[in-house]
Amino acid sequence: MGAGYFIIAILGCADGSGACTPVATEPTHYATKAECVANVDAALARSTDLDFPELMAECREVSAPLGASATTPKREAPRVILASARRG
Predict the structure, then answer these.
(1) Domain that holds residue 48
(2) What is the pLDDT of residues 19-65, one digit of tens each?
(3) pLDDT score of 19
(4) Record's superkingdom (predicted)?
(5) Which of 37, 42, 43, 84 lies deepest, with the highest CB count within 10 Å?
(6) How many structural domains comprise the chain?
(7) In the chain, count of helices (H) and strands (E)?
(8) What is the reported pLDDT for 6?
């Protein structure tokens, strides 16, 4: 496996944080989780056009095999909500 990176996934939530669905992925790849976390609020600010009562963003680790540019997560990590935006 090659070096991994992090992406920001945007989740749309219908009723609180219990029923969230991935609705977008930011195109930027971050070398570290700290870089990714530092950009979560800006990613939410860019996602206000999504039609959900609440939006959340989380950093997800992605691993790419050597010589490939695959963008599938190697495993789903426990979900940690880093930021959320509620419409009101």
Answers:
(1) 4-86
(2) 889 999 999 999 999 999 999 999 999 998 998 889 999 999 998 66
(3) 81
(4) Bacteria
(5) 43
(6) 1
(7) 2, 4
(8) 97
Picking from 78, 84, 71, the residue whose alpha carbon sits closest to that of residue 16 is 84
pLDDT given for residue 15 in this prediction:
72
What pLDDT is recorded for position 1? Answer: 46
Measured in degrees and rounded to the nearest 5, phi and psi for residue 79 equal -75, 125
Q: Which amino acid is at 11?
A: L
Among the listed residues 77, 85, 87, the one whose alpha carbon sits nearest the alpha carbon of residue 11: 85
Q: Identify the CA nearest to 28 among candidates 54, 74, 60.
A: 60
- Distance between CA 59 and CA 43 in Å, rounded? 11
Q: Give 67's DSSP letter.
A: T
